[in-house]
Amino acid sequence: QVQLVESGGGLVQAGGSLRLSCAASGRIFNINDMGWYRQAPGKQRELVASVTSGGATNYADSVTGRFIISRDNAKNTVYLQMNSLKPTDTAVYYCNAASKTFPTFHYWGQGTQVTVSS
After folding, report:
1. 41-50, pLDDT tens digit by residue?
2. Are the beta carbons of 53 and 33 closer than 8 angstroms?
3. CB 51: neighbour CB atoms within 10 A?
4. Phi, psi for residue 29 in degrees, rounded to 5
5. Which of 7, 22, 65, 108 could be cross-linked to 95 through a Cys-Cys bond (beta carbons 3.0 to 4.6 Å apart)?
6. Is the CB of residue 96 less than 8 Å from the CB of residue 34?
7. Are 10 and 115 in contact (CB under 8 A)?
8. Across-strand partners of 7?
9. What is the DSSP string of the chain?
10. What phi, psi does 109 have (nearest 5°)?
């Protein structure tokens, strides 16, 4: 099993910044890609950004140029730096870790609320 614990959410005004952290523990040798998803009320959960174990990144179009994902393999932690936040970024943000096994198993954190006021 892998446990993911998120931190760093909160309330911020539009244009502000927040940094989310996600610390992994447990069978971390089984982790491949890590990422952040978000789910706004009434909407489906969507990928925000992901990073491979080698550091390659992928972003949703809506956050490209504003958000930066990074990963510290020594600390088993993934970060999401969110800049120029918009009210449309308001959502619960979930940390995700994909296993190296086949088929792939996805581990999830408990979620952290991000609220951007206008």
Report:
1. 999 999 999 9
2. yes
3. 20
4. -65, -15
5. 22
6. yes
7. yes
8. 21
9. -EEEEEE--EEEETT--EEEEEEEEESGGGEEEEEEEEE-TTS--EEEEEE-TT--EEE-TTTTTTEEEEEETTTTEEEEEE-S--GGG-EEEEEEEEESSSS--EEE---EEEEEE-
10. -85, 180
Query: Residue 74 forms beta bridges with which residues?
Result: none
Rounded mean pLDDT, 48-61: 95
Closest CA to 46 of 32, 58, 60, 31: 60
Query: How much of the chain exceeds pLDDT 90, in percent?
Result: 86
Instruction: Determine contact, residues 19/80, Cβ cutoff 8 Å.
Output: yes
Could you tell me the CA-to-CA distances from 30 to 22, 24, 100, 104 in Å, in that order? 16, 11, 6, 10
Residue 7's closest CA among 85, 75, 95? 95
Contact between 114 and 86 under an 8 Å Cβ cutoff? The reply is no
